[in-house]
Amino acid sequence: MTKMMIQRSLIPVVALITWAGIHQASAHIYYTGRDFGTLVPDSPVTISSNTNTNFGWAEATTETWGDSHHGRFFRFTLTEPMSVKITVQQTGGDSGFFPGFSLYEGLAHLSPHKPAHDGSALSVNSRPEGKNGSLRALHDWSIGNDPTYVIDGDPTSGILHEANLRYFTYVGHAADGTADNFGDADGILGDGIADGWVTGTFQNLAPADYSIFVGGADLFNQTTGSFAFDVTITAIPEPSTYAFVMGTAIVGLIFFRRRRRK
After folding, report:
1. Which of 30, 90, 168, 247 is 20 to 30 Å from 66 by CA-CA measure?
2. What's the domain count of the chain?
3. CATH code, 244
4. Is the backbone of residue 176 left (phi > 0), alpha (psi -120 to 50) or beta?
């Protein structure tokens, strides 16, 4: 089977989970070093990163939900409607990393707020009992943070910013391989070859801030280590927008030439 381009309209979401399945997730969500900024059409951008398990994305598709520590969050911004192509490829470190990723509209907490984490009281109280974390790879989800105190770490100093939830609206996903490595959760669509890279194109995204969660897609051969990968994003202008811009430019050029002939 050849690689397939996974379109936004083909997919739903689920969750990411604790690697041991027994401890309470407590990692904080950051975008430091993983911010693509505002995307420019037809200008690919690549960011290198790593994760600490080869199964974080796949396990997040299970009914136990996911641990946000076992993958990495990236962000980007669109200021006009565009399609976006996302490619994740293993680049080194421990071998045997089959990437999976989910795309969401929305961002986690940014400074000066405390970062979100699965173990915050708000996160725990906002999800069903018995889950390993708040993150879901195939659905909408939310996660909370801790209060920001006037004096950091001192609850008696007063609350500067209350704890609150951030919401992630599922857009779509892509997974490397087949059900033999990532399992058979409803809605998963793989590219058919477990070869260390996967790509997906998500069409006609609205102007907004977006998050990407990248993790391992090997549910049945779970290991920990240092799994390095690159994420490349290319924004593709929507045809109607491109036609309007080009048409305006052509009309302007014709008008300019006519004026010069007078």
Report:
1. 90
2. 1
3. 2.60.120.380
4. beta
Two tokens, residue 6:
């996974």
* Contact criterion met (CB below 8 Å) for 120 and 166: no
Q: Report the alpha-carbon distance of residue 141 to residue 67 in Å, rounded.
A: 12
Whole-model pTM above 0.85?
no
Residue 1 resides in a domain: no
CB 120 within 8 A of CB 109: no
- How is 152-216 classified by DSSP, letter by letter? TTEEEEEEEE---EEEEEEEEEEESS-HHHH---TT--B-S--SSEEEEEEEEEPSEEEEEEEEE
Q: What was the pLDDT predicted at 80? A: 96
**Which secondary-structure segment (H or E) carries 246?**
helix 239-261
- Structural domain contains residue 236: yes
What distances in angstroms separate CA 260 from CA 8, 210, 253, 255, one per listed residue? 47, 46, 11, 9
77 residue type, one letter = T
**What digits encode the pLDDT tens for the residues 99-150?**
999 999 999 999 888 999 999 999 999 999 999 899 999 999 999 988 988 9
Q: What are the pLDDT digits (tens) for 80-102?
A: 999 999 999 999 877 889 999 99
| Residue 113 domain-assigned (yes or no) | yes
Residue type, 38: T
What's the domain range around 213? 6-261
Residue 135 tokens read as 């993150």
C-alpha span between 123 and 142 (Å, rounded)? 8
Sign of the Cα torsion 102, 107, 109, 112 reads positive
Distance of alpha carbon 217 from alpha carbon 54, whole angstroms: 6
Of 182, 234, 227, 233, give the one whose Cα is nearest residue 91.
227
Distance CA 76, CA 210 (A): 5
